[in-house]
Specification:
With about 170 residues, the protein is an alpha/beta fold. The protein has 2 domains: about 110 residues, Thiamin diphosphate (ThDP)-binding fold, Pyr/PP domains (Rossmann fold), CATH 3.40.50; about 40 residues.
């Protein structure tokens, strides 16, 4: 969020009162740089005020809190109140990419955030509220694992695209 395009988008959306929800997943790290060392104001949601738009910070590790914040923003958009900047405070459990060996983050930091895993927290909530059983959630996990495995198998078995496909869907075609 420290690049000009981010601010240009916020400005245009506010200027035109677009019914849009900007969601920033603030995982505390900008590739290998601690977010707090890379920005003059680490609270990204506050940047909305410069454009006269609503901004809100939410616990991005809480699925239901994110849902509630999104619903409020959608209501504002539908009421003609323009855009909202939603900052979801979350965490990245792995390195940024395959090239990131994830050596910069302390183990204690990783362990703290692992205890707040949003999927595990939602599962516990669903079970506690008797909205789903542990067995039902395990069955869903198995379905997901099977679907992902099928997709990987399909992708690996697919033929390589032809070189002429490289520019397809980039320019208007006759």
């Amino acid at each position: 969020c420290n690049i000009g395009q981010f601010y240009e988008c916020l400005n245009m959306a506010a200027l035109w009162k677009l019914p849009i929800l900007f969601v920033v997943e603030n995982n505390k790290w900008a590739i290998g740089m601690d977010h707090n060392r890379a920005t003059s104001d680490p609270e990204i949601w506050r940047k909305a005020a410069a454009f006269g738009m609503a901004g809100e910070e939410v616990d991005g590790m809480d699925v239901l809190a994110v849902r509630g914040a999104a619903q409020r923003a959608i209501e504002r958009a539908r009421a003609g109140e323009g855009p909202t900047l939603l900052e979801c405070l979350t965490y990245r459990f792995r390195g940024h990419s395959l090239a990131d060996p994830d050596e910069l983050r302390a183990e204690a930091e990783k362990e703290f955030w692992a205890q707040r895993d949003p999927i595990k927290r939602l599962a516990a909530h669903l079970i506690e509220q008797k909205l789903a059983s542990a067995e039902e959630l395990k069955a869903i996990d198995k379905e997901i694992d099977a679907e992902v495995a099928d997709c990987v198998e399909f992708a690996l078995a697919a033929p390589e695209p032809k070189p002429e496909e490289l520019t397809r869907y980039i320019w208007a075609e006759d």
